Amino acid sequence: MQSQELFSLAEAGDTNAQFHLGAMFYEGRGAAQDYAKAADWFGRSAGGGYHEALNMLGVMHYHGQGVRQDFTRAADCFRLAERYSFNDEPLYDDIAADWRDRLLSPEAVDNKRQFLHRARVLGGEARYGIGSGLCGTAAETAVSHAARGLFGSAAALGNCRAMYSLGVMCRDGQGVRASKTRALMWFMLADRAGLAKAREARAALEAGMQQAELERAEKLMRRWLRVYPADTELAAAA
């Protein structure tokens, strides 16, 4: 697909083409890197409900890339992305089957696939960052609830620090009912993802738990992984 054809589709309102242009300008692939133009195209795509674009728009507001840094706006973008099933749908890997991408070169399709994975890593990091900031502002229930939601969304994207933070909240009863079993589940997940301090927290918690509780935590972890399987490609992208 010639760039002019891609622009024509994007100008006509095709959210996939708009997202693709946003990615090109964000990374400087096929066009000079320009965060302002990337934010513009991601914004147009997000306006059509394209959840991958909403995720990237949130990332850009979190970092202040091409737009004014605004954590509230970033969090709103992430919540909208989830509303459009960002975390509930598997990453679309069969991109070449999409008619809008059939005219792209194999290299362009592969670049897009890799960008989608990197975008999810960036989204997980931003969600964790905002959640951590909220936890540092107050211990109010509403704040804790918002932080927990962001941590949960980041954890679904494989962010091990968010998993660890959820474990701490469950262990200490921070904004949630204290539960050693659920805390252990999160520490186990973070440990599997390679976070050293999660391994230490897991060992300390396991030492004071009954066998039935350990088995329950293991069961909860397996249930989580069935819904949000560990993504080796995401790990590689990180």
Oligomer: single chain
Q: In terms of structural class, how would the helical and strand content be classed?
A: mainly alpha
Mean pLDDT across every amino acid position: 88
List SSEs in N-to-C order: HHHHHHHHHHHH
Radius of gyration: 19 Å
Distance between the termini: 30 Å
DSSP helix count? Answer: 12
What's the helical proportion of residues? over 70%
The biggest sheet, with number of strands, parallel, antiparallel or mixed sense and barrel status, is: none
Overall shape: elongated
Count of DSSP strands: 0
Low-confidence segments, ≥5 residues, pLDDT <50?
93-97, 232-238
Could you characterize the architecture of this molecule?
The protein is an all-alpha fold and 238 residues long.
Supply the key terms.
238 residues, mainly alpha, 70% helix, elongated
Fold blueprint:
Elements: H1 3-11, H2 15-27, H3 35-47, H4 51-63, H5 71-83, H6 106-135, H7 141-156, H8 160-172, H9 180-192, H10 196-206, H11 211-227, H12 232-237
Helix pairs in contact: 1-2, 2-3, 3-4, 4-5, 4-6, 5-6, 6-7, 7-8, 8-9, 9-10, 9-11
Sum this structure up briefly.
With 238 residues, the protein is mostly helical. The chain contains 12 helices and no strands.
